[in-house]
Amino acid sequence: MKEKNFYLTRLGLKKIKNEYEELKQIKLAKTKGEAPAILHSEEVNPEFIALQEDLGLLDIKLSELENIIKNARLIKMPAKNERTAVGIGATVLVDINGKNQELTLVGTLEADPDRGWISNESPVGKVMLGKTTGDSVSPEGNGKTVYKIKKVFYNLS
User: What is 98-116 written as a DSSP string?
Assistant: First the structure.
């Protein structure tokens, strides 16, 4: 099975790595202390069950974060001759049915439509990839919503 790549800005990757390290510390703190006894009377101790559930959830999240870090691809500035086309990391000024809006294409983990950050895997992101100034795209394919690309630029820090 092919691993999925996760496109991230430097800041996005840093946040993921920080979350991973914090969760490792939490897991260490939970396992370092005195674990509740398994048996309490003739029943399983509820504190022990809660600890096991917490550790299980931490392990799942740590595994997810490890996979993201392992398959992370930093969003980089493209070569100068490729900066006219929309790619991951591009900010695109578009006219959407008469209204101007700036959209920045990022990976799925950093997408935030309220900020104008859209995923490269979203319907809009997919149809914009590779397009240049002057092109028009319609994510639905029916022409109801038309995105006319007015400007493409890269401003990665």
Answer: TEEEEEEEE-GGG-BGGGT
